Amino acid sequence: MAKLDQLKKHLKQGNVYRRSDLEQWTTSVDRHLAALVKDGTLEKMSQGVYYFPKQSAFGNTPPEEETLVRSFLKDDRFLVTSPNVYNSLGVGTTQLYNQSTVYNHKRHGEFKLGNRKFDFQLKHHFPDKLTKEFLMVDLVNNLDKLAEDREEVLKNVSNKVALMDHTKLKHSVNLYGSNRAKKIFEPLLR
């Protein structure tokens, strides 16, 4: 029991831990993890990933998305987005989606981490942060996956492109656009 208490002293609320992170503080990782999950100290998010929840007036708070993904990937090179963000572009997208997309260099596929679904996509190139130019290109790249009227959205994209910085948008299209997206943007950026 004393060793479990020693392990607890190293844990910080709000942090996400991989099983391998805890090996430095205990020689009985699996037994201690089982005990910490059983007593509610840690929550299991997925295979080998655990969260030490922060307490609020409303109960346990979920981990921050970035913290969870960083721990899952064991990498800082990723970009978290969602089709919901397209709604901010003003091109007629209104649907809400219950999944985040993670562009990264390591994992591919759908994973459930805690109560959240993530679509991990391997990409060679993606920006460090979301920009409206990247989002416009990403929207056109993923148009077939959206529950929207494609023709109406493309018409609105065409109107919106006329108001955007063409230099920045061309740069994003060249770096991040699929072949189909490049064909769609080419006449719009002349």
Question: Overview of this structure, please?
Answer:
The chain is α+β, with helices and mostly antiparallel strands and 190 residues long. It has two domains: 62 residues, Arc Repressor Mutant, subunit A; 123 residues, no CATH class. It is built from eight helices and nine strands. The strands form three sheets. Strands 6-7-9-8 form a four-stranded mixed β-sheet, with helices on one face. Strands 1-3-2 form a three-stranded antiparallel β-sheet. The protein has a two-stranded antiparallel ribbon with strand order 4-5. Strand 2 and strand 3 form a beta hairpin. Helix 5 crosses helix 7. The chain is elongated. The model has no long low-confidence stretch (mean pLDDT 94).
Biggest sheet layout: 4 strands, mixed
How much of the polypeptide forms β-strand, as a percent range?
A: 15-25%
**Residues in helices, as a percent range:** 25-40%
Tally the helices: 8
> On the 0-100 scale, what is the average pLDDT?
94
How many domains comprise the coordinates?
Answer: 2
- Strand arrangement in the largest pleated sheet: 6-7-9-8
What structural class is derived from the secondary structure elements? alpha+beta
Tell me how many strands there are: 9
End-to-end separation in angstroms reads 70 Å
Q: Return residue spans where pLDDT drops below 50 for at least 5 consecutive residues.
A: none
Give the C-alpha Rg.
Answer: 21 Å
Shape: elongated
Give the topology string: H per helix, E per strand: HEHHEEEEHEEEEHHHH
